[in-house]
Amino acid sequence: MTVMAKPQDRSSRDRPASAKLRLVFMGTPDFAVPALRVLAADYDIVAVYCQPPRPKGRGMRLTPQAVHQAADELELLVRVPERFDQAAADELARLAPDLLVVVAYGLILPEALLALPRLGAINGHASILPRWRGAAPIHRAIEAGDKQTGVSVMMMDKGLDTGAVILERHIDIADTDTTGTLHDKLAHLTATALAEAIPMLADGSAALTPQDHDQAIYAHKITDAEAELNFTHKTTDILNKVRAFSPWPAAWMMIKQGDKSQRLNVLAATTASAKPTPTTIAGKSGAILGKGETGGMVIATADGAIELTQVKPAGKASMSGRDYLNGYPMPDHIITAADRD
Q: How do residues 194-207 score in pLDDT, each as one tens digit?
């Protein structure tokens, strides 16, 4: 059932319809930066909340988050609470926002806080809900082989990405998309979707559509361990994983050369289009079959073979598959997880 939003139901004070809305923006990574910049042009951003600075880089210097840096450029008030205790909640209440706008913030907000603004709290999420709720919707959509995704703007409630949807905008996932490229597309789509949804919410014309919780799929947080490639899987599934985990955390495999073993990150790969001269038993999953059409390493899968077109050896910069084999000997074999057990 779809219901119409009624902003006056939350109102604890009278504000003229023409008044510039007071927003509190909550976000942390670079995904949220386009939304902050778009909304700052049209609304009164009374404060920006993001996670605290974290150690980064070789020197592990304390570095402000991407949203923090953008807010500083826009000369906006920034707050970085580790958690929303009573003091942080009281400070937010004193800001008297009309609306909370949340994009990839990363902290759980108490339910009472969501009800504080007269228009409530909304979230821009990088999937078509209820598919891919949770922490890694972009990675999981590509990994699953989805052909389409998008963004949802929803009202926030006490659940995780469970609120009623105000609007959604769809986008095709190209066969060449990685999490990196799709991330950037969806970041900008989230910004425009929020800019479209907020006026509808403010004037009461927004249609709130409850999610079908029976159709929900959860996008679990990505771990480095699961990014290890398993060549007993089908070619399409392996290529989807490579795209899904590029650029982070990067799909990887362990290779053996002589008495040395090394991790090799795989940033891009393609279906092997030419039959190579095998250097091991051809057709066995995980067998290294030689060089492919573009000069990269070819590895047998459950139903074919893939060619590594972009790789990153441990401690080195990324390079093409051809350059890797020009500078390194062909590995003897791939060390599987079963080999290490």
A: 999 999 999 999 99
> d(Cα 3, Cα 168) in Å, to the nearest integer?
16
Cα–Cα nearest to 43, from 35, 31, 32 = 35
DSSP states of 17-84: TTSPPEEEEEE-SGGGHHHHHHHHHHSEEEEEE-PPPEEETTTTEEE--HHHHHHHHTT--EE--SS-
CATH of the domain at 297: 3.10.25.10
Q: What is the pLDDT of residues 116-151, one digit of tens each?
A: 999 999 999 999 999 999 999 999 999 999 999 999
* Strand arrangement of the beta sheet that strand 121-125 belongs to: 78-79, 44-49, 22-27, 99-103, 121-125, 148-155, 165-172
- Decide if 317 contacts 269 (C-beta within 8 A): no
The residue segments making up the domain with residue 48 are 3-219
pLDDT confidence of residue 67:
98
Q: Is the distance from CB of 224 to CB of 263 less than 8 angstroms? A: no
pTM of the model: 0.91
Q: With a cut of 70, which residues of the chain have pLDDT below it?
A: 1-19, 274-283, 341
pLDDT score of 159: 92
C-alpha 110/C-alpha 190 separation (Å) is 24
Domain boundary among 157, 184, 219: 219
Alpha-carbon dihedral sign for residues 47, 50, 51, 57: negative
Residue type, 135: A
d(CA 310, CA 340): 25
Q: CB of 266 within 8 A of CB of 255? A: no
